[in-house]
Amino acid sequence: MRKTLFDKVWDNHVVESIKNGPDIFFIDKHLIHEVTSPQAFDELKEKNLEVFYPERVLATVDHNVPTLNQHLPIKDDLSRNQVEKLKSNCFENNIELFGLGNPNQGIVHVIGPELGITQPGMTIVCGDSHTSTHGAFGAIAFGIGTSQVAQVLASQCLLLNKPKKMRVNVNGKLNKNVTPKDIILYIISKLGTDGGAGYFVEYSGNIFSDMSMEGRMTVCNMSIEMGARGGMIAPDKVTYEYLKGKPYAPKGDLFNNKVNEWENLKSDSDAKFDKEYFFDAEEIYPMLTYGTNPGMGIKYSDLIPKSDKKSDIKSLEYMGFKSGESLIGKKINYVFIGSCTNSRIEDFRIVADYIKDKKKAKNVNALIVPGSQNVLNEIRKEGLDKIFMSSGFEIRQPGCSACLAMNDDKIPPGEICVSTSNRNFEGRQGPGSRTILSSPLMAAATAVNGKIIDINEQ
Fold it and tell me: Which CATH number fits the domain that encloses residue 406?
């Protein structure tokens, strides 16, 4: 039987299939951070178990670390205790840790790819839902719960039922100012937040094959927002060029041999999917969300649609919006550019290119939060930091920051933030905060103008 990309990677990692039950599924790389790992290590200690395969585990701190003065002791008790607990757990179990002060520290889904840890054909898990990011390399990558974190630490395996397979095709020519973030927001707006439930999604078509690796990561990152278990894009020359020379990637002949293997990681021409969708690139425009889930998205210039659903009515009430009105002209006081969705160097180049020789509006607080120390160093190397500072943007140190407001980077109650993050749930960026998801370009334009503008009329 002909196989999909997902089938090929999945089948290659099944240790054993339990009759009328789940598969015993091997995990190549287990990524951990300070928030979801302490309980898992405690569970191992209670059961007198050791970490089975420490060299396949990698740790970093990102979720609730401060983004100011990271060289100083952490003031918040919970954050400090979690960071210290991760440090001691990694030391006791011989696990590599990129802690504060380490040149490779950063958001877990940024550092994995940029260091070459993430590779095609791998299985990757992390106690974080946006692990789907790594699927951009043709890997099966997904988030797991704390009990599963313990399971992987103890056995390097999971008990899993194989998801169904979906393919999303996007072909054609993109419109002006459309970025990968707009593409995935468009797809989610069409399929809904449960459209991918029970599926692993493969993204296919010229739009994705023409996309940079950083763009592909943005797309796969938000697969979870349409309910999918994860997303994948077949590896190709773009993937190989991105990985070549990365610190943890294979070197020399070993790399060439790996590329030959990776060339087989694509869906066979007659492979069957359980569900398939086709979209025309010409229908996609810069996107904005107007509600409290990522599926409530519209073309930037469209009017907020009318809905009689109680959840939609409640959502608009929370946001302070009304059906039939436009988002263009809405005054915005907060802009956040960061998160595991859009905090890579390509994202900041887009922002810098737009704001160069401009000033942010006086009413706007504009936050730039790189996804890793390496991204921050590249920002400085390319002189983007000078553009940000001269335009009035504030640059912070790497971390998840205002994406989920687990540190001090919170949006005040009642304020709207145009954000490049991945979720616009009630209070996601701080108690009472309200979020409009956008691309880095739309966020930059909002910061400069102090309001949402017609980006394509400029």
Answer: 3.30.499.10
Which candidate, 133, 13, 65, places its Cα nearest to that of 406?
65
pLDDT in tens, 426-435: 999 999 999 9
Residue 358 lies in a domain: yes
CA 10 to chain centroid, in Å, comes to 22
Q: What is the pTM of this model?
A: 0.97
pLDDT tens digits, residue range 324-349? 999 999 999 999 999 999 999 999 99
**For 48-124, where are the alpha helices, taking DSSP H only?**
77-93, 108-114
pLDDT at 457 over 90: no
Residue pair 15/157 in contact by the 8 Å Cβ criterion? yes
| Domain assignment of residue 326, given as a range | 301-457
**Percentage of the residues of the chain whose pLDDT score is greater than 70:** 100
Confirm whether 359 is domain-assigned. yes
Radius of gyration (C-alpha) of the chain in whole angstroms: 21
- How confident is the model over 277-311, as pLDDT tens digits? 999 999 999 999 999 999 999 999 999 999 999 99
What is the enclosing helix (H) or strand (E) of 216?
Answer: helix 213-221
Cα-flanking dihedrals φ and ψ of residue 423, to 5°? Answer: -135, 140
The average pLDDT across 401-423 equals 96
Q: What does the alpha-carbon distance between residue 130 and residue 140 come to, in Å, rounded to a whole number?
A: 12
What's the residue count for the chain? 458
Q: Is residue 250 part of a domain?
A: no
User: Among 134, 160, 186, which residue terminates a domain?
Assistant: 160
Number of structural domains (the chain) is 2
Q: Which of 133, 160, 187 is the last residue of a domain?
A: 160
Note whether residue 259 is domain-resident: no
How many CA atoms, within 13 angstroms, populate the side-chain half-sphere of residue 315? 23
